[in-house]
Prior knowledge:
The chain is mainly β. The chain has one domain: 7 Propeller (Methylamine Dehydrogenase, Chain H). It has 7 helices and 32 strands.
Amino acid sequence: MATDAAAAECARVGGAGGCCKKGPGYASPKEAMKGPRESLIYVTSVYSGTGREKPDYLATVDVDPSSPTYSKVIHRLPMPYLGDELHHSGWNSCSSCFGDPSASRRYLVLPSLISGRIYAIDTIKDPRAPSLHKVVEPDEIIKKTGLAYPHTAHCLASGDIMLSCLGDKDGNADGNGFLLLDSDFNVKGRWEKPGHSPLYGYDFWYQPRHKTMISSSWGAPKAFTKGFDLQHVSDGLYGRHLHVYSWPGGELKQTLDLGDTGLLPLEIRFLHDPSEATGFVGCALTSNMVRFFKNPDDSWSHEVAVSVKPLKVKNWILPEMPGLITDFLISLDDRFLYLANWLHGDIRQYNIEDPANPKLAGQVWVGGLIRKGSSVLAEAKDGTTFQVDVPDIQGNKLRGGPQMIQLSLDGKRLYATNSLYSTWDKQFYPDLVEKGSHIIQIDVDSDKGGLSVNPNFFVDFGTEPDGPALAHEMRYPGGDCTSDIWV
């Protein structure tokens, strides 16, 4: 497989039609924006934790507007076991391997958050009907590494696959770290050097030109698997740190304490331009977007770039409700940042052409706890109460709040699911577990900014053959802005 340096050089000289034409992905983020329109989406779909004794599955959704099965689930690949809790996903190869003509974006990697299994799904034989290729069993992972609760998967330019793991087999956060699989999905060991494991684990992103990987921190599995309890935050069972590593060396160089403004830092992304040394992390509980950046002395700093203010509310479990930023992404041209407030119910678009000063460019309400008809009332500064209008789509009321989001390569279509994690879904949106998830599409003004709901697109996971299911993360067969990394 190509090294990071070789892939970077080939990408620079090869362009879209040069020597690296046969490698997976695209030479650059801007070349990716010229890629074909998405026609399929793969969606991790969950029965674990819902009370339905069915295996989780990978759904294939038709998103081609010219197709007779547009906005329908056209295939379901059930996993061979119960209780997995499919969550996030990644690829065996992406644009980080663009310089390697022997590499192929063939296998979708599905880590199971609760069972610890990792599935490799073949998407090449039949992209519309993927098939199971291999299962990496948790016993093997634990035996060789001590790791459990796998979460984020990224391919590396070396051909290996790296996964963040959130704890040990007993759910203790101090057992977490990073798992390496080879290109045949054999367990190689841990990525980080001994004694350099993070305090808590969750997501990660690497930026090879700056020889840096940064990871975020959710919390101890033994806490979040029981549902959210504010006392667990006080007890120190949730994270507020970013961990800065040497890349690819695996040495923990710096820990950034985000403090009380950065509780539960979840999704993390560098800007897509591999020469840039800045990025963002969404801090769920405090609902802040924190920007991190490299200093002249090669150390890293952070600052709050966007703050979603909590709402004063009535008839809820707390007197104030955070937005709960559970997902965000950055357009491939690094112009716009999109975030989802799972509890408030809105999706926001920010112009980040000046990353230190994001400007709100669009907002749309597509669910949440303060929608009209809810028992929860938001309180304005003058003491009056209000609720927000949430549209129906094709006669369907939107359930839950916007959670995972995915953007088309050209930046014009934003897809959103509404399930966070089955245990938390049950706690905050019990009707979501009862009635199932959905996927909606938001039309994006990628020139001036602006968001609007597409009234012609609605994928209803409440009508699935085995009963209502929870839809979580989405991937396109050709890669996307939350899985591809450029070197």
